[in-house]
Specification:
Elements lengths: L31 E2 L2 E2 L6 E2 H5 L5 H8 L35 E4 L18 H13 L9 E7 L11 E8 L6 E7 L7 E6 L6 E7 L7 H5 L2 H5 L13 H20 L13 H13 L17
Antiparallel strand pairs: 1-2, 3-4, 4-5, 5-9, 6-7, 7-8, 8-9
Helix pairs in contact: 6-7
The structure holds a DNA duplex (16 and 16 nucleotides).
Amino acid sequence: MANENHDLFYHHNNHHHDDDELNPSNFSFSQNFQGFDLSTTPTTTFTDYLHGSMDYNTLSKAFDLSCSSSEVVSSINDNNMKKSSAGDSESSSSNEAEAVIEQDSTKMEKKDKHPKLGSQDGDENSKKENKVKKKEKKPKEPRFAFLTKSEIDHLEDGYRWRKYGQKAVKNSPYPRSYYRCTSQKCIVKKRVERSYQDPSIVMTTYEGQHNHHCPATLRGNAASNIFSSPSLFGSNSIPLEQRIHQDFLAQFLPSYSQSNNHQMFHQNVPLPPHQQQQFQLLQDNGLLQDLLPSSFPGKQEQ
DNA sequence: CGGTTTTGACCGGCGC
DNA sequence: GCGCCGGTCAAAACCG
């Protein structure tokens, strides 16, 4: 992670004014992404995946964007970083949700559970050696990250999660929480942290693919239809980009539709209070203008 | 009482 | 080698 800066593109809503907001250089994103340190997670934009299978307008339509087709975008890539001038203003639009896809990454993921404090000397050494042998880095599960404006850290997404850790984030007063899908054998993980630059923004990062259906589906609750997609990146039958797209929409449509006074997905099903709260917030802030066109030349060598 | 959260310790990678 | 840091573990606390 020596040199991991990130490309960042910003497209603003036309209902916002001026271009000073348009200029990426107005954002001090050289190493941060709206207050998030993503240096350890190479990412590519959502649109990268959309190219070829879906265009930006389609998305806009899908989201029924009330405000034009432009939106806040940011892409983050660690391979080719142009440092946006560490700018000044981060006044920046505070009303936005942004989506990025973090693709794999060369970081390795440790899968094995090592005994905590070793003292079982016995095979300890051999274990270590095995590890050393396995020097090759495991490719990481695909990641998908997005920013959401919400007071709620852990956003409801239809799956059940168990928190397994929390860490202080460097340079941020807000901790990062780690969640694992509670479903057996499901290795999907989720990371949630709040921007220190704009505390109203929460970044959620999913990693891996569910090997099961969304529990909400089975229960037939509000999220059921919405989150019926079996997995975030699962199901090999359709192209990744489509899956991502579907899942992305699945995750945001309800919020966004409500924010536009549409009742598409939850018309008959009252949302749980915390979700209402969450969605209300989105509405108040005109959230979810995500997705981006942006062709960022980013090549991601895995 | 079983599942979840909290929280300090541990692990491994990385830079110096 | 050491320290930093992100990520994970797991025991204890918590909760419905």
